[in-house]
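Hey team,

Filing this mostly as a record. A colleague (T.K.) asked me to run one chain through the structure pipeline before their review meeting, and I want the input and output archived in the tracker in case anyone asks later how it was produced. No errors, nothing strange. Just documentation.

Input sequence:
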Amino acid sequence: PEGPPGRFLCGASPPQGWDDPDCSGTHELDTVDFSLFEEVIWPALYMRCEAFGALKVQAAWAGFYDYNTLDQNAIIGRHPHVRNLVLCNGFSGHGLQQAPGAGRAVAELLTTGTYQTIDLNCFGFDRVLNGERVLEDNIV
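Output structure:
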């Protein structure tokens, strides 16, 4: 639930084959794509909970979504060519969920030179340079 009781905030990642992954313009923000809700979001909600069958859209907006186009996952760690640059970005909407762990990992990296609690090397920038994706089965 988000906002007043009885209201929910929901959205979706860009559909497969979306032709402007780098958002070269802002024309996408001019109108809300209600078909995305009707054809993708609403059926997914209904499959999880039949009570969403009575769902009515009360408000809508179009906006940019922080989206790592390589694999939809964070980039965390030192940049391989600029050693004093530490990255912690590209969460593709996972930021609020993963911020406590990512913040701790970066703090450990900065203070000890390595990850202590959990090894996040798989999220390093080298994977971006090499085109090596970290894939998840379930991305919300």
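Quick notes for T.K.: Helices lie at 34-48, 95-112, 126-130. The mean pLDDT is 83.
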